[in-house]
Amino acid sequence: NGIAPVIANGTMVWNNDARYCLTRGILWERDHWTQAFDQVHRLTADQARRLFQEFIFPFNSSAPGSFPQYELWRLRTPPSNADGGQLSSDERKIQIHDVTCADGVTWVLHFIEASLGVVRAEKYQLLASTVAVDADALEEVDHTDPNVWADLIRCYENVNDIFHGAGIFRKFWDAHKVLSMQYIYDTNSHKYYRIIGNRFPWFRVEYLPYPVVGPGHRNDVDGEAEVDWPSEGVRSVPGLSPSSQEEAATAMTASILL
């Protein structure tokens, strides 16, 4: 669920597959969203069909547990030349990058521009929320060590106790009061790290600009990670008939709204 694993009999199971949710029309209808709507791209029926067939359907058909995995936390540390003073978000180095709905939006926009050749609306900048965890350092731990594993289990049991059975805002409020970040699991590298020097308020929610990049890119890393895509792609969605898929793709002829 992006925050904590299922724990049973001394094991921890993460279920963090990050995939696209497909709904008819705007999720929860337009009135649910209080922010302004901007037209970013305008697609033809053929371009909308290609977006689904060449990007979204193959993306959603990737094997469970494969990249990308949902990661709630953005872990940041001071740069090596930091002088110990107060640092802004831009000055901190991202050690573990969050992977959330905002990244899914940037990947779609990137495909539309890079693969379909559609020009973005002038001056548009994607802004989205991120949950930032600031620390002095990050240290990979050996989770095969029984003592380390027992400590990881204890830590995540505490997290589950806080986040179980409450609404999302209450969860964050409770966590903000009592939860110092001791460990973090990088869901995309499948590694556990000990967080050193995490101080109150432990984590903060920030509204930041997102670069429009494709899967595998990170705005703090040069180059592009390799991503395994199905060789032929998948042209179907569970629970959606072929005619409905065609209808859904054609229905995107107007514009993509964020």
What this model shows, in words?
The chain starts with 5 loop residues before the first strand and ends with a strand. It contains five helices and eleven strands; from the N terminus they run βββαββαββααβββαβ. With 258 residues, the chain is an alpha+beta fold. It has a four-stranded mixed sheet, with no helix packed on it. It has a three-stranded antiparallel sheet with strand order 7-9-8, with no helix packed on it.
Q: Spatial order of the strands in the main sheet?
A: 5-4-6-10
Main sheet: strands, sense, barrel: 4 strands, mixed
The number of E-state strands comes to 11
Terminus-to-terminus distance: 24 Å
Binned, the helix content reads 25-40%
Q: What class would the helix/strand composition place it in? A: alpha+beta
Q: Which terms summarize this structure?
A:
26% helix, 258 residues, disordered C terminus, globular, alpha+beta, single chain, four-stranded mixed sheet
Task: Offer a quick outline of the entry.
With 258 residues, the protein is of the alpha+beta class. It has helices spanning 45-60, 101-114, 146-163, 168-178, 242-250; strands at residues 6-8, 11-13, 39-42, 73-77, 93-96, 127-134, 137-140, 183-186, 191-196, 204-209, 255-257.
What layout of secondary structure does this protein have?
Layout: E1 6-8, E2 11-13, E3 39-42, H1 45-60, E4 73-77, E5 93-96, H2 101-114, E6 127-134, E7 137-140, H3 146-163, H4 168-178, E8 183-186, E9 191-196, E10 204-209, H5 242-250, E11 255-257
Parallel strand pairs: 4-6
Antiparallel strand pairs: 1-2, 3-11, 4-5, 6-10, 7-9, 8-9
